């Protein structure tokens, strides 16, 4: 059987799916690309995923998945022993699904609009205002999620892929120091997940520590 192919870019959301693939212990390859840079790599990405975004996951049968939450649920079906999601008959399942969609449907898009506001509105003051409001809204969403965080994992005693999302996304703006101060429960979830050796290895590859 052909391996999965994860097309991603270091430090991006593909790190979440990379962690899930490693924990699921399924054969896979990584194709790291500068996904916004014009050229043959982006051309291939656009042919597979017209949105031109990462992660993009090519399944062994050639099917292409473009949404990280769908990838997580698929990998849970393939390798339930990895514990990426609670089983359907467990009480945590509904909460898991709700928080998963909150992360990908509410928080994740703030980076799409906040990272490059002139792509969505007029450059200058309108773009600055959009960036400011998106950053404010993102902070509000994180603080709301903070109130729902369990310990030591998002679901309390049960690990899930929610912990992988938090581990990666707390490395993005506004940054780890902000989370340590403003959302300490989320920071604690991220630190706990990073204790898993495979998660730690993927984390180091995507967010290498600064050199002296």
TrEMBL record:
Q: Which domain of life is it from?
A: Bacteria
Residue ranges constituting the GST N-terminal domain according to the UniProt record: 1-83
Record's InterPro entries? Glutathione-S-Trfase_C_sf, Glutathione_S-Trfase_N, Thioredoxin-like_sf
The record's section on PANTHER family has: GLUTATHIONE S-TRANSFERASE GSTA (PTHR44051:SF8), GLUTATHIONE S-TRANSFERASE-RELATED (PTHR44051)
Q: What is this protein's record name?
A: Glutathione S-transferase
What taxonomic ancestry is recorded?
Bacteria, Pseudomonadati, Pseudomonadota, Betaproteobacteria, Burkholderiales
């Amino acid at each position: 059987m052909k391996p999965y192919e994860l097309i991603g870019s270091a430090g991006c959301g593909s790190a979440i799916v990379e962690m899930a693939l490693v924990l699921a212990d399924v054969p896979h390859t990584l194709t790291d690309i500068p996904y916004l840079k014009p050229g043959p790599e982006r051309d291939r990405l656009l042919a597979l995923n017209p949105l031109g975004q990462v992660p993009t996951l090519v399944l062994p049968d050639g099917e292409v998945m473009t949404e990280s939450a769908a990838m997580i649920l698929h990998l849970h079906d393939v390798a339930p022993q990895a514990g990426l999601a609670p089983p359907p008959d467990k009480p945590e399942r509904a909460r898991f699904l709700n928080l998963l969609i909150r992360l990908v449907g509410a928080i994740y898009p703030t980076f799409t609009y906040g990272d490059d506001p002139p792509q969505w509105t007029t450059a200058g003051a309108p773009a600055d205002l959009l960036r400011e409001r998106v950053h404010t809204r993102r902070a509000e969403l994180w603080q709301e999620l903070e109130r729902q965080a369990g310990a030591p994992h998002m679901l309390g005693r049960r690990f899930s892929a929610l912990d992988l999302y938090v581990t990666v996304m707390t490395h993005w703006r506004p940054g780890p120091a902000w989370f340590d101060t403003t959302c300490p429960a989320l920071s604690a979830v991220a630190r706990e997940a990073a204790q898993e050796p495979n998660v730690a290895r993927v984390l180091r590859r995507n967010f290498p520590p600064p050199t002296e």
